[in-house]
Amino acid sequence: MNSNDLIENLNSIRTVSVKVQTFIHGVCGQITDSMKLYDLKLKEIKVLDKKIKEERDRLAGHQPHHKMSKAKKLKLKMKAGKVRTHHHVKTILQQNNQFLV
Predict the structure, then answer these.
(1) Are 64 and 54 in contact (CB under 8 A)?
(2) pLDDT tens, 6-51?
(3) Residue ranges making up the domain that contains 90
(4) Is there a contact between 64 and 57 (Cβ–Cβ < 8 Å)?
(5) Do 51 and 19 share a structural domain?
(6) Residue 100 has pLDDT above 70, yes or no
(7) Residues 18 and 50 both lie in one domain
(8) 96 vs 89: CA distance, rounded Å
(9) 32 and 11 share a domain?
(10) Are residues 4 and 23 in the same domain?
(11) Within this chain, do residues 73 and 55 fall inside the same structural domain, yes or no?
(12) What is the DSSP-derived secondary structure letter of residue 64?
C-alpha cells in the first residue's frame, strides 16, 4: 500500500469517526431532552396526586395530615417515656408506703 492510499484510508476513517461522534452527540441530546420531559411529567403527576388527596380528604371531612419532623416525634416519645417513668416511680413509692404502714 503506497502512502497516498494510506492517507486516503485514514481520511475516510476520520470522516466516519466524525459522523459517528455527531450521531452519538445527537442521540445523547435526544435522551437528555426525553429525561427532562419525563422529570417534568413526573412532577406534574405528583402535584396532581397531592391535589386529589387534599380534595378527597376535604370531601371526607378529614383534617389535613401534618408531617411531623423526626425531632418532634422523638420529643413526644421522650415526653411519653418520662410520664410513664414518673407514673411508675409514683406507684412504687405508694406501694412501699402501704407496706411500711
Answers:
(1) yes
(2) 888 888 888 889 899 999 999 998 998 999 999 999 999 999 999 9
(3) 67-101
(4) yes
(5) yes
(6) no
(7) yes
(8) 11
(9) yes
(10) yes
(11) no
(12) P
Same structural domain for residues 16 and 30?
A: yes
pLDDT at 98 over 70: no
Q: Cell numbers of 55, please?
A: 380534595
As given in the structure block, the three cell numbers for residue 42 are 413526573
- Report the pLDDT value the prediction gives residue 48, as an integer from 0 to 100: 93
pTM of the model: 0.43
The residue type at 80: A
Q: Which residue has the cell 410513664?
A: 84
C-alpha to C-alpha distance for 17 and 19, rounded to whole angstroms:
5
> Which H or E run contains 39?
helix 3-60
Residue 19 CA to its chain's centroid (Å): 39
Together in a domain, 74 and 48: no
Mean pLDDT in the chain?
80
